[in-house]
Amino acid sequence: MILIQDVHKRFGSQKALDGLSLRVPEGKVFGLIGPNGAGKTTTIRILCGLIRPDQGSVQINGAGLDEPLKIRRRVGALIEQPGLYGRLTLIEYLTFFARLHELDRSRARKRIHELLELLELENHVLERLQGFSLGMKQKAALARILLHDPPILLLDEPTAGLDPLITKKVRDHILGPNDRTKKTVLVSTHNLDEASRVCDEIAIIRKGRIAAKGSWEELQRQLGGKRQVTLRLGEARESYRAALEEVQGLSEIRLDIEGRRLSYSTHEPAQINPEVVARLVGRGAAIVSVEIGGTSLENAYLELTREPDATQPGKVEIR
Amino acid sequence: MKKAWFIAAKEWREIRRDFYVLGILLLLPPVMVGTLVLLIYFYMTFFLHNLDQIQTMLSSMPSAYIEGLAGYSDVQKVAVLPIKIIGIPFFLLIPLLISGIITSDSFAGERERNTLETLLTAPLKEHELLLGKALTPFLPALLITWISFGFLTAGISRILNPHFLSPVFPDRVWNLSMFLLVPLFLAGTVLAEILISCRASSVKSASALNMLLSFPVLGAMLLQSAGFVLFSSSTLPWLILLMTLVDAGLFWMGLKILHRGVLEPQ
Predict the structure, then answer these.
(1) How many domains is chain B built from?
(2) What ipTM, to 2 d.p.?
(3) Tens digits of per-residue pLDDT, B27-68?
(4) Which of A71, A108, B34, B128 has the highest CB neighbour count under 10 A?
């Protein structure tokens, strides 16, 4: 389990973490999402013991930051860059880290072989890392963090810059069904789609604080916000707008007569849309299609992580 | 300790594959030794062809040197003087330059190449990391220095020893310096360079700061030349004791810095 309590960290005058607290239960995949500079990487660096918090406490499977060796033995960390020694071959690189992780020669050889096979790198063992593509570099780094089979993985943007095929492979290898029950994973990402696919729980981090937290579905409910619904009509009439003004729970009704579109915003499209359609059909409207715009969480994320507008203070509610 | 060896072995492998670094490491010692041998050869040749200049030269020498050469003829005094005056401090430049080339890349290089965080997430104790990083330049620099000393001995003996009944080079001071003072001096240099590399923001700035470490050696050359004899039988034990204390202090400082974390912003 990972436990972070009221952690503060400053770099000069800049506040990187401002009372961050979170708990990742054992065997869960926890996503930390937020914009650049939100504090995701700082959180992961603190968890690895690479930097110290100014205030607050951290525990990883019961070990605190005053026991860095225990933490490093329990954690596999992938931090921003793959961190490869370009002049070493893949096998030399992995053997070096296997020995640092106290695997004896035969165990190291066996484990490296397993991982190379898993990550489809077995044909590149004698190649120097400096010639690897970005995807191969990332896979080599993943092999490194899995060498000592750590119960906890800390992954900072593990799929950043990778093409979709390799992204899927990386996702499957690390967060796939085989490992899900075994490893506790904290993964930071910009990618909402990735977070929604792999994470049991997600925290949106902004300016070093947790702005929202919960499962994907909980966040959808909590922060869904309004969704824009657009109806394409056979013909657009002013009376259709008037018909919608009587419906509760709608706002921002717009009629585009030339474009033959009618749009509105609502928190609950599933409840509202049937009533809207019934009213419009009752007034003789021909409805060609109904489109529900964007994912609500994406909108909420953008809103939560947006720099606050000085002219509209308090528009974003931070939990 | 095993892990320190793993780190050093990894770094030696990387150095072996860096053509330019390896080239400079191999080229520097013969150039330095060759320079010293040629200087002494030309110097000897000059005085052997200008015997009338010997008295003038000896009278211009600091008295501390001349007093230490009682029992030698004037030609013999002139022959051994240069190697006693500038020999040892000049020779200390070899381990200093070699370790500087390797160590400036130590932490600063890892930071530049984004490998430092990866290394620091491995379960390493501070002393293992520091020792590993120190062994990397220490052993090659010491080995190269001793091999260079072998070549220097061969070259200088050939020039000097024919003028004496028994071999005068290498003498006790040189042997003590090479086998006790040089390792201690090198350890101190390496540790100081590692501390610089821990704090420097780039390899370039680490290299620039490492240049400062040559000042004490140049100062020693100057003092030695001016007659403040630093490298003699009586002063050497004190120098060795001083270097031991300096090394212990630097090692302690290194552990402190690594404990605080080399990634914390400066």
Answers:
(1) 1
(2) 0.86
(3) 988 998 998 889 888 888 888 888 788 888 888 777 777 777
(4) A71
Candidate CATH numbers 2.60.120.10, 3.30.479.30, 3.90.1300.10, 3.40.50.300; the one for domain A2-222? 3.40.50.300
Residue in A52, A73, A84 nearest the CB of B123:
A73
Q: Which residues of B touch A (CB under 8 A)?
A: 2-3, 6-7, 10, 13-14, 17-18, 113-125, 261, 263-265
Nearest alpha-carbon partner for A78 in A116, A109, A40: A40
Domain(s) of CATH 3.30.70.100: residues in chain A: 225-297
In sequence order, the 6+-apart residues with CB closer than 8 A to the CB of A139 are A119, A120, A121, A166, A169, A170
Alpha-helical runs (H) found in chain A:
40-48, 68-74, 90-100, 105-118, 134-146, 164-175, 177-180, 192-198, 216-223, 238-245, 269-282, 296-305
Least CB–CB distance from A87: residue in B3, B7, B14: B14
- The two structure tokens encoding residue B1: 């300790």
Mean confidence (pLDDT) of chain A: 84
**Cβ distance of A69 and B118 shorter than 8 Å:** no
Buried residues in B24-53 as b, exposed as e (16+ CB within 10 A): ebeebbeebbeebbeebeebbeebeeeeee
pLDDT band at A225 (very low <50, low <70, confident <90, very high): low
**pTM for the model:** 0.81
Token pair listed for B118: 């990866």
